[in-house]
Amino acid sequence: MSKAAKLTLAGTSVGAIGIVALVHYQQNSEKAAMHAGVVRDIEQQRIKKERQADFEMQRALEEEYRKVQQVHDNGGGP
Question: Which residues contact 9 (CB under 8 A, 6 or more apart)?
Fold first, then answer.
């Protein structure tokens, strides 16, 4: 084989290995980013459920207090 052919083979081999390594790294980065998105969505759903539970509890307390106390709305003025 000539020197030019050997250099061409070596260059294309290094280039192909570099491209495969880059694609592998990129896939791992995308996988990690997608997993982080799933974790974030689960956390947001948990927070939403907690807030809904707090809201329901406050509504139940309000109804209980309205039964016990007389609440009058005097139009917002003194």
Answer: 1
Tell me the pLDDT tens digit for each residue of 29-43: 999 999 999 999 999
Question: How many CB atoms neighbour CB 68 within 10 A?
Answer: 7
Within 10 A of 58 (CB to CB), how many other CB atoms are there? 10
Supply angle C-alpha 14, 18, 22, rounded to 5: 175
pTM for the full model?
0.57
Of 26, 7, 6, the closest CA to residue 18 belongs to 26
**66: its two tokens:** 């309205």
Six-digit token string for 46: 């948990």
Question: Which residue matches tokens 């329901």?
Answer: 56
Give the whole-angstrom CA distance, residue 3 versus residue 32: 43
CA distance 74 to 55: 26
